[in-house]
Amino acid sequence: MISDVFQPANIMFLLQGFKVTLEIGFFSIIFSVIGGTFLGVCRYLKLPVISTLAGIYIDIMRNLPFLLLVLVVRFMTPLPPVMSGIAAMSIFTAATMSEVVRGGLNAIPNGQFEAAYSQGMTRFQVLRFIVLPQSFRNIIPPMMSEFTTIIKDSSYVWAVGTEELTGRGMILIGKYSATGQLFTIFACVALIYFVLNYTLSSLARWKYKQMRAYIH
Amino acid sequence: MKSSEKKLTLLVISALIAFGALAAGCGETDKKESAAKSDSGQAIQKIKDRGVLKVGCKIDVPLFGFKNPETGKIEGFEIDLAKAVSKKIFGDENKIEFTPVTAKTRGPLLDSGELDMICATYTINEERKKQYNFTEPYYTDPVGLLVKKLDNIQSLKDLDGKTIAVPQGATTRKAVSEAAKKDGIDVKFAEFPTYTECKAALMSGRAAAYAMDQSNLHGYVDDQTVILPDSFAPQEYGIATKKDNKELCDYIDQVLKEMKKSGEMDQLLTKWKLKN
Amino acid sequence: MAEIFAGFKWIALLDDRELFIEGLITTLEVAVFAMLLSLILGIIFGIAGVFPKKWVRCVDRVYVEFFQNTPLVIQAIFLYHALPHLHIMLPVIAIGILGVGIYSGAYMSEIFRSGINAVPKGQMESGMSQGFGYWKIMWYIILPQAKRTILPALGNQSIGIIKNTSVLAMIAGGDLMYTADSWAGANMYYGPAYLVTGFIYWMLCFPLTKWVQQLEKKAEVG
């Protein structure tokens, strides 16, 4: 009976859902990193107008549940299902990313700036060539943690019917409701998420260790 | 140093202004369009210009809107209805884009303009008519109850004090609670975002029954479950369009009328074994 | 767009405010108990993460890695739909507390583990040389010092817990998000429903966020 679950059609069905999860994850990571870095740098440089606007945006996004944003974006914008998931996730996560970037930039000692200015570099040059590269060491671990959060929280888009991995798993559970089959499906879905996220976080840890070894 | 900062600030502000103007401009165009819609074939023209009809349909209700797991194609009675509309507009029944919807998402997707019409087992009732336009009904389906054979439930009365699983956004909850009141019993409800989760709730024992339109339940019955003979609150399905798009609604209504007259409707009903 | 926020919809929301208040109470109940649970699990597994015995540290790694790398949604749905098959039928609020609590506990334990690791190892050694037991040292010497770095992170987790209770909306949990969804699903008044719900969550979380920011400043200065 449990073997019924492992028919090729079912496995394909589940993997197609995984593909959607990867799509949402991949694009959300890219957009939120770009948006978050931009906002984080703006806030760090304390640029007028933008800093304040960004601050308001961040204060709102970081205090709302992601599920709410999924619902709002799906229902209030004419975006197709997967794109609305990517939009919601990017908008939501960019706020957290910007705080990560800002925190990483803040951690660089002022001495770096002073030394660079004394060499005649502009603020932007200092940022680009000295501060940002060093702050990566601080920024990478929390950023990777956000990446895994993106992949895990992508499961919330199932609340609006988008068929990613969790959704596909639930559909199979509707079909194969015997105890053994049920547990097998859950285990498979959890395993796929786990493998993906564990790989990502292990990569991050390895890269982080590399960077530390280099600096010291 | 300060000047490059100022430059960046100016850049971003002007980008924001440009974006704002664009958004405002789009808003203006929309207003003009909806004013014009009440005049003549503007709504239909817009669809013709776009080149594709955007339809919301079910993909998990066998016979009405169902994605065949083997072919990956969506098929069903409602799919064919939508194709007939597309044929009337474009002369080609395949100029159509189907978006899967759930009971919860179908209404809002009309509002947001993502879809032109919804053909997704959408029951017509007075409250909904206030918010969306509906065509004349194309099918009537009563609400039914799916229960586990092992639970030995014979009728709605046996569900006194129990929990019934219903999908969010469907008229089922209201229909069942009214029927329960009539029978003098008390029931609790657990709502889920999709049909599969209602079925999962039934199977895990979280709910004693899954209530839904019978046509839908037929897709979920298996050897551990049975559909009770109770059937109540006949639900009339209609095709829904956005409230300010009366134009399109009348157009689709016309298509349906013609199909009923020409016997095409009957043919489709027979094809999907829905004729009583 | 304006129709989404039409006046009569707001009035309907006002009329039905008891539903939303009940939902809010459920959210708070689940949040508070989940915080307690995650704190307890956090301390236990945090210490387990630095324990001298290797197998204990291993158990901690398994717990942390499993619950940090799988979605809360899956964990909650599993507790809700799969446990009954083992004849364990927990009330939905318990599922919320367990699900959110165990999930956050994994993050809490990492916070405690790194906080403990930040306290100089010499403390443990000198304590041992004075004849104190492992647990006494941990409780009276190490943990109080770790508090300063741990507190802001705990605050952040608490905010996360409040937001994570919204997972109950996917398993008919009766919390604020479920109530809003259910109400809006029935009458399609989703404009006011989601706006008010967002506002309430914001009111719950924002003060906590500000408090955590203050804590973080204190941790830096000291």
From TrEMBL, chain A:
One GO term (biological process): amino acid transport
GO CC entries: ATP-binding cassette (ABC) transporter complex
Domain ABC transmembrane type-1: 18-204
Record has Ligase as a keyword: no
GO molecular function: transmembrane transporter activity
Gene3D superfamilies named among the record's database cross-references: MetI-like
Pfam families recorded: BPD_transp_1 (PF00528)
Top-level taxon of origin: Bacteria
InterPro entries: AA_ABC_transptr_permease_3TM, ArtM/GltK/GlnP/TcyL/YhdX-like, MetI-like, MetI-like_sf
Record's bilayer topology term: Multi-pass membrane protein
Transmembrane residue ranges: 24-45, 66-92, 182-204
Subcellular localization: Cell membrane
Primary subcellular site in the record, as a coarse category: membrane
NCBIfam families: HEQRo_perm_3TM (TIGR01726)
Family: Belongs to the binding-protein-dependent transport system permease family.
UniProt protein name: Amino acid ABC transporter membrane protein 2, PAAT family (TC 3.A.1.3.-)
TrEMBL record, chain C:
Record domain ABC transmembrane type-1: where: 24-212
Gene Ontology biological process terms from the UniProt entry: amino acid transport
Keyword Transmembrane helix: yes
Keywords per UniProt: Amino-acid transport, Cell membrane, Membrane, Transmembrane, Transmembrane helix, Transport
A molecular function GO annotation: transmembrane transporter activity
Bilayer-crossing regions: 30-51, 88-108
Compartments where found: Cell membrane
Record CDD domains: TM_PBP2 (cd06261)
Family annotation (InterPro entries): AA_ABC_transptr_permease_3TM (IPR010065), ArtM/GltK/GlnP/TcyL/YhdX-like (IPR043429), MetI-like (IPR000515), MetI-like_sf (IPR035906)
Membrane topology according to the record: Multi-pass membrane protein
Family: Belongs to the binding-protein-dependent transport system permease family. HisMQ subfamily.
Name of the featured protein: Amino acid ABC transporter membrane protein 1, PAAT family (TC 3.A.1.3.-)
Organism: Megasphaera paucivorans
